[in-house]
Amino acid sequence: MPGVARVFLIAQAVFWSLSYVARPLVLLAVRPEPHFGDNVPDPRLAELGYDRGIALALQHVVFGLWVYAALVVAYAIWAHRRPLRRAAALDDPDFVPALVALYVLGMLGRAAGTASGSAGTAGEVDSANPMLAFLAVPASIAAIGLIIFLRPPDPRRTAVVLGALLVGELWWSSVVQSKTPILGAALALAIRFSMIGWNRRTALGVAGIGVLGVVGFGWLQSFKSTGTAARDAASVDAIYPENVQPFLSILRRFDLLEAATDALFYGPGGWLTPSEVAQHASLSLIPAPLLGLEKFQSGTAWADEVRGASVDMSTVTVSLAEGNFNEGYVLGGYPGVVVCAVFTFALLLAWSYSLYSRWFPVVVLGLAITGASTLFERGILGSMENLGKFVQTAVLAWLVYLVVEEFRRTESCVVTGEMESQRWV
């Protein structure tokens, strides 16, 4: 597979392996009893028996993975002789300065959200301060863009800048208690090397950073729990083997096995009709103030209606990641799984081509998808919701780009005018 699409395919394989392989292996090895404060064991799987329950929950997932693998192989056969392109953004002198301006704006939003206690966490339905939450998004997009496209002539300066960006995303992952920022940054580093060229040192470096991000996430999370909470967390983790305990914090974030169990107990079909899916997906692209009504939130609906069909969710308000194969199975059985697999792969191809675009808003959309979990743990509805948010961010980024472009053009004209004046004098 040529180009950056190969990086995302590897990342998808790793992500789905952690959800559908690593987590089941831990459950089968430890067979923990479900109890409060630990979301790794699922009471529904434990009641069925972990071996039988996991096998039933993963049937439609295995089918979806075979369909997805067939799409990948077919595309790879078609595209393997196509020449690699050069990213047009590398030839735009205003591209990197615009990303720097976006990063500063986003970091100000992050700082304001952290200081005011409204930064939010993963799974929250509503943000305490939607404006600050929106302003924080450009920081992740700009960080990913700088990691991919920044090309300082000095290797030491490059290493310092990349290291600072990675540390900043790791810090933000800890603040919002989400794996997405640091995984997006690590993915951006892999994309950078896929464009520049791989060697053994860069491959080992990216793999090491990925492992460091996983371990570092749990280490940073340990500082957020003190007193009784820390003791409760330690007692929960004590039932697992010592070599597994460092990874429990991040493993709990890969919860697609729970979504697969939701789909098993809900059954195929009966959630939404095809017309309802098309309506909700199209309306997700329109900003809520322009739409004039509250938009459908697939993560919240999945928690209330799909998981709520087999788990008591009456006292819990949360937005869940449903996963593409799981959503497809609930919407239309195995044909629905095929549709969602095709949609996810088409979105991956669109993302890979967007990073080579010459249009700044299109590149920003690609960077936003890079830093989100859209291609990993969302279906059609969740992906369209994220795309709607990304379009608004792309508009903001485009306005920033126009301001930076005009400022640099004016500055260049002033400098040129001064040089002409001195030459005539």
Question: In words, what does this structure look like?
Answer:
With 425 residues, the protein is mainly alpha-helical. It has one domain (5-414). It is built from 19 helices and no strands. The chain has helices at residues 5-30, 43-48, 50-57, 59-79, 95-116, 130-149, 155-176, 180-196, 200-224, 228-237, 248-251, 256-266, 274-283, 288-291, 298-306, 324-354, 360-370, 374-377, 380-424. Helix 6 runs antiparallel to helix 7 (155-176) and helix 6 crosses helix 17 (360-370). The N and C termini lie far apart (60 Å). The model has no long low-confidence stretch (mean pLDDT 83). This is Oligosaccharide repeat unit polymerase. It comes from Nocardia fluminea. Keywords: Membrane, Transmembrane, Transmembrane helix.
